């Protein structure tokens, strides 16, 4: 069985977007380097530093499914039906869209984080499941469903906005020492959640 990994680019003060859902400088590192890297969408290249490329190439191929919230789905229009990474997206929502123009896209709409992660894990088999940062991440941590945290730390302060763990209220969670990869305008911190 693969791992459930909470992942996002995050500011030094803990935000994945500002109050208007803009990412601002948090995504600059995706296009500031000489190495071309692709997720699932072959029409959407990233140009990153050599260190970030090696990190992405060591983690992205293991991803089989993603769990996202309805807010991200709406903001991106579900990436026009093509998952950014992995081959299936599970969207947590109480109200699935009725007029989305990509009915055959590999997207499943699920009522609840726990059920979405369960379905994503079943789909992923021995591959990994990513959970996007924000309220969905906080709910997954609170439910004890997270194995790893991939925190791409950007040297910026947003001051306010959407927090990496949303409105997380739950038990104390300890993490093992991180794998640290220093990219250009980003430091990738990859933690395992301590199980003992």
TrEMBL record:
Under the heading Pfam families, the entry gives:
RibD_C
Cross-referenced InterPro entries: DHFR-like_dom_sf, RibDG_C
Q: Which GO terms describe its molecular function?
A: 5-amino-6-(5-phosphoribosylamino)uracil reductase activity
Q: Where is the Bacterial bifunctional deaminase-reductase C-terminal domain?
A: 114-168
Organism domain of life: Bacteria
Q: Where is the signal peptide?
A: none
Report the record's Gene Ontology biological process terms. riboflavin biosynthetic process
Q: Which Gene3D superfamilies match?
A: Dihydrofolate Reductase, subunit A
Q: What is this protein called?
A: Dihydrofolate reductase
Native organism: Kribbella jejuensis
């Amino acid at each position: 069985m693969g791992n459930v990994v909470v992942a996002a680019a995050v500011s030094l003060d803990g935000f994945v977007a500002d109050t208007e859902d803009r990412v601002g400088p948090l995504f600059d590192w995706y296009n500031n380097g000489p190495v071309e890297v692709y997720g699932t969408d072959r029409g959407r290249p990233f140009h990153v530093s050599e260190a970030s490329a090696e990190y992405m190439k060591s983690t992205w191929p293991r991803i089989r499914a993603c769990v996202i919230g309805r807010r991200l789905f709406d903001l991106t229009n579900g990436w026009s039906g093509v998952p950014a990474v992995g081959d299936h997206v599970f969207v947590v929502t109480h109200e699935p869209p009725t007029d989305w123009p990509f009915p055959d896209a590999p997207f499943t709409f699920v009522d609840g984080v726990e059920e979405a992660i369960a379905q994503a894990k079943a789909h992923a088999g021995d591959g990994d499941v990513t959970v996007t940062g924000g309220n969905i991440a906080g709910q997954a941590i609170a439910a004890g469903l997270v194995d790893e945290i991939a925190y791409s730390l950007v040297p910026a302060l947003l001051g306010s906005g959407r927090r990496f763990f949303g409105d997380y209220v739950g038990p104390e969670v300890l993490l093992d020492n991180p794998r640290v990869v220093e990219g250009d305008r980003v430091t990738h911190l990859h933690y395992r959640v301590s199980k003992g």
